[in-house]
Every structure is written in C-alpha cells, then in structure tokens.
C-alpha cells in the first residue's frame, strides 16, 4: 500500500468523488467468510465496523438482521457515503455512524464484535506502533466474549499484538490470478480474541 493510506487527507480527497468501492474483496464474499462467526451471535449483538470507507459491508450486516452496528471512520465523508448507501438500500438510516480514530477509541466494553476489512492495513502505513494502538483501543471496546475479525493482505499483520490477543488465521482467501502460472496470493482473515487481565 502507498504510504498515504494512513492519512485522513488522502481518504477525504478520495471520498469527494468515490461513492462505492470494496477493498481486498467484495462485502458479500467477506460475509461468507464471516458467516461461521456471525451465526453464533444474537441479532442484537453490538458490532463495530471499523473504517467502512465506501464499502457496503454494513448493509450486508443489516440484511442479516444486525442493527446494532456502529460504523467508525475518521473521515466524515466516508460516513456520509455509508449513510447514503444504507438509505439507498433500505429507505432509512438505522445504524450508527461515528467519526473517530480507530487507534484512539474510547468506547465502553460492550461490543461483541469488531470487524475491519482493509482498515488495519491502512493504519499499518502509519507509525510503527499504529496497529498496536488500534489493537489496544479495540481490546478496550470488546465485551468478555468479544472478538475482532480482520481481513488483511498481510500474512504478518498482527505479530505485534500477541501479548494481549490470541491471533488465529481463520481462513485464507485465494486472490484471482491473471494467468494460471501466477503465484498463489492470499488474503488473510484473522480472528483475534482478547486475552484478559493483560497490562499494556
Ligand atoms: C483501505 S480502506 C477500507 C475501506 C472498507 N473497509 C473496504 O473494505 O472497502 C481504509 C478505511 O479506513 C479508514 N481509516 C484509515 N485509518 C483510520 C483511522 N486511524 N481511524 C479511522 N478510520 C481510518 C479510511 O478513511 C478508509 O475509509
């Protein structure tokens, strides 16, 4: 990823014209990957959708019956786009939209799930400890059964957070090849479960 992907100004400029785009994979394909985790959840589970950009993953969650979804992005235009996508699909806006930096969240520990698709990758373009800060912030927002699902292009995205998260690669998603001889390249769907009683 280009270094600018951690900068809010990059996303602001981009979302001035972009109204719908999916990073890494489509939201419907990601929902298939999320399905084993989502089927265990009550429909009133509190879900954090981190760095939604102009993805319609939130609409996929609402379509599955999840309404307690808080979409968090530091770029207000992303949230405007998200609300428009929700309105276009359902005729109203019932999910929450919050302008905040995912490396500095201050939310109550009441959330069952945090989901990000490509956001940790964007954050990783910033300072060396940015993903660590994001992970600490998410750790504080999750309830006792909570977990974080992250889709990343990196096979080593969360090596630095193992002292306070159990990190598992729940699945690897092969990316499309242009030629049969192209190398196998995967996306990594991480399942991160908070360790308890850890000191940062
Ligand atoms: C790579 S895009 C992914 C967008 C969307 N999740 C998708 O799959 O298409 C990264 C998104 O994260 C947001 N973002 C990046 N760093 C952030 C931060 N520190 N706090 C909040 N949002 C951030 C950007 O504004 C952008 O919407």
TrEMBL record:
<protein>
    <recommendedName>
        <fullName>Methyltransferase type 11 domain-containing protein</fullName>
    </recommendedName>
</protein>
<dbReference type="InterPro" id="IPR013216">
    <property type="entry name" value="Methyltransf_11"/>
</dbReference>
<comment type="similarity">
    <text>Belongs to the methyltransferase superfamily.</text>
</comment>
<dbReference type="Pfam" id="PF08241">
    <property type="entry name" value="Methyltransf_11"/>
</dbReference>
<dbReference type="GO" id="GO:0032259">
    <property type="term" value="P:methylation"/>
</dbReference>
<keyword id="KW-0489">Methyltransferase</keyword>
<dbReference type="InterPro" id="IPR051419">
    <property type="entry name" value="Lys/N-term_MeTrsfase_sf"/>
</dbReference>
<dbReference type="GO" id="GO:0008757">
    <property type="term" value="F:S-adenosylmethionine-dependent methyltransferase activity"/>
</dbReference>
<dbReference type="InterPro" id="IPR029063">
    <property type="entry name" value="SAM-dependent_MTases_sf"/>
</dbReference>
<feature type="domain" description="Methyltransferase type 11">
    <location>
        <begin position="48"/>
        <end position="108"/>
    </location>
</feature>
<keyword id="KW-0808">Transferase</keyword>
């Amino acid at each position: 990823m280009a270094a600018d992907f951690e900068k809010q100004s990059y996303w602001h400029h981009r979302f001035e014209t972009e109204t719908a785009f999916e990073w890494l994979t489509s939201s419907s394909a990601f929902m298939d990957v999320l399905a084993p985790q989502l089927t265990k959840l009550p429909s009133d589970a509190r879900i954090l959708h981190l760095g939604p950009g102009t993805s319609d993953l939130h609409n996929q969650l609402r379509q599955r019956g999840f309404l307690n979804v808080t979409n968090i992005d530091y770029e207000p235009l992303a949230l405007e786009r998200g609300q428009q996508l929700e309105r276009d699909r359902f005729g109203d806006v019932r999910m929450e939209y919050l302008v905040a930096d995912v490396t500095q969240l201050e939310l109550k520990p009441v959330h069952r799930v945090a989901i990000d698709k490509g956001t940790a990758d964007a954050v990783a373009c910033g300072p060396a400890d940015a993903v660590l800060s994001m992970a600490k912030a998410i750790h504080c927002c999750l309830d006792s059964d909570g977990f974080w699902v992250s889709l990343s292009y990196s096979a080593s995205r969360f090596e630095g957070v193992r002292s306070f998260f159990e990190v598992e690669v729940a699945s690897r998603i092969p990316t499309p090849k242009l030629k049969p001889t192209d190398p196998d390249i995967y996306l990594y769907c991480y399942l991160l479960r908070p360790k308890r009683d850890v000191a940062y």
